[in-house]
Amino acid sequence: TGRRPFDAADYFGLLMQVANDDPTPPRRLDPAVPEELERVCLHCLAKRPGGRYPSAGQLASELKDWLDAEVTTVREGEW
């Protein structure tokens, strides 16, 4: 999207956003972002550690599946 998931005027404001706000879904910023890629991105940004990928390998596998035009295992609401 060309933007960070959180943006603030100062460090404290940034920390407050990260702690309290949900990231803006990429498709809201750029409707051309594919839905499956948005799901992967939001899964990476989940607040709870259990809502994120358990390993870089699993994230890499999801991205490879997306690049290969396969369906990812992340479903809406899992983040």
SSE layout and pairing:
Blueprint: H1 11-20, H2 26-29, H3 35-44, H4 56-67
Helix pairs in contact: 3-4
Description:
The protein is an all-alpha fold and 79 residues long. It has helices at 11-20, 26-29, 35-44, 56-67. The longest helix has 12 residues, at 56-67. The protein is globular. The mean pLDDT is 89.
Summarize this entry quickly:
The chain has helices spanning 11-20, 26-29, 35-44, 56-67.
Number of helices: 4
Q: What percent of the residues sit in helical stretches (DSSP H or I)?
A: 40-55%
Radius of gyration: 13 Å
Euclidean distance between termini CA atoms: 19 Å
Name the overall outline.
globular
Q: Largest sheet, described in full?
A: none
Order of helical and strand elements: HHHH
In terms of per-residue confidence, which ranges show pLDDT below 50 for 5 or more consecutive residues?
A: none
Number of strands: 0
Structural class by helix and strand composition: mainly alpha
How would you state the average pLDDT, rounded? 89
Kindly report the oligomeric state of this protein.
single chain
What portion of the residues fall into strands of 2 or more residues?
A: under 5%
